[in-house]
Amino acid sequence: MCNFKSVEKINDGAIIYLNPDIVTKFEDITENDRKLLIDQYEYFSTMDITLKYDNWRRDVILKSILPEDIEVPTAYSLVGHIVQLNLRDVHLPYKSIIGQIFLDKTANARTVVNKIDTINTSFRYFAMEILAGERNTITSAKEHGCTYQFDFAQVYWNPRLSTEHTRIITFMTQGDILYDVFAGVGPFAIPAARKKVQVFANDLNPESYKWLQKNALVNKVKDNFKAFNMDGRNFLREVVKDNILTRRAQNLPGSEHIIMNLPASAIEFLDILPDWFTQEEFKNVCLKPPIFHVYCFVKADKGDDVCMLGKLLVEEKLGYTLSAESIVSIHNIRDVSPNKQMIRVSFLLKTLTGEEPATKKFKIS
């Protein structure tokens, strides 16, 4: 129960309120507790009290107003001051009241939105409607010591990836290079730059690019951070390729990390690899192979090895089998929906050709 004090001090004593669904008479209290109370209380009785809207939890209120056959929505994400819901079709006739209850019953919430479409695969944001509160989708979120500002209605942000953002940075040390192909507003790029990694961060979405630059300033990263607003393939073919070749020519230290966090389609961008470098260039590149961190979605049945499915999916797009020595890490990031997982495959670019991969076709959406 919310905003209700179960102990009320009066004069030299106190009134203790007990849950009437559990205790209706003194004997309902456990024997040990009764012994403790025997010299402490004057009398036991019942009384009527008036409970108001503020006293009830969100789930209790929703259960009381929704039809009995409709499951109460409980899942939500809090992005700054914005509560993000993903209501089912059965909830939509009641969306306004559901939104208002979430607004009233969620600490620090000022706006409640509902996702109404899948993510835009080009610019990586989903259509949403405001259900309650302020019509303001510009917000600020904090994650592991970094501050990110953005318009939630125009860019991609997922607080459920917070752990992965931190995990991937552990692969990097000061002096390394990060090429973030689909950088969004910077959840990989900004903390990497603060770790003194040289960062080249790119996003096709002009809004993401705008906030990416803003977040670099907010988090005081400048000298080792460059932002780009390009198609991912062009970024790889031009910026990443040129910088890697320059580094090899100058024999510069540090490892190179290429993050491709666009799980719905990142693997499609691997088609640039066969002609990314000339054979002579590739020999120099592989003296210190870059590390790819590729994210993908995998459809899997119960009991399937989802990490192996992710590896096979990447291999299918590469056109060859990844050797054991080239695998850096394969990680199951999170459940996206029933039978759908988000996987990261991290591997060293050691070859452009090799043993043909399995020919089985894998579902990615």
Automatic annotation (TrEMBL):
Signal peptide: none annotated. GO terms for molecular function: tRNA (guanine(37)-N1)-methyltransferase activity. Residues 76-351 form the SAM-dependent methyltransferase TRM5/TYW2-type domain. GO terms for biological process: mitochondrial tRNA methylation; tRNA N1-guanine methylation. It catalyses: guanosine(37) in tRNA + S-adenosyl-L-methionine = N(1)-methylguanosine(37) in tRNA + S-adenosyl-L-homocysteine + H(+). SUPFAM superfamilies: S-adenosyl-L-methionine-dependent methyltransferases. Keywords: Cytoplasm, Methyltransferase, Mitochondrion, Nucleus, S-adenosyl-L-methionine, Transferase, tRNA processing. PANTHER family: TRNA (GUANINE(37)-N1)-METHYLTRANSFERASE (PTHR23245:SF36), TRNA METHYLTRANSFERASE (PTHR23245). Involved in mitochondrial tRNA methylation. Specifically methylates the N1 position of guanosine-37 in various tRNAs. Methylation is not dependent on the nature of the nucleoside 5' of the target nucleoside. This is the first step in the biosynthesis of wybutosine (yW), a modified base adjacent to the anticodon of tRNAs and required for accurate decoding. Belongs to the class I-like SAM-binding methyltransferase superfamily. TRM5/TYW2 family. This is TRM5 methyltransferase.
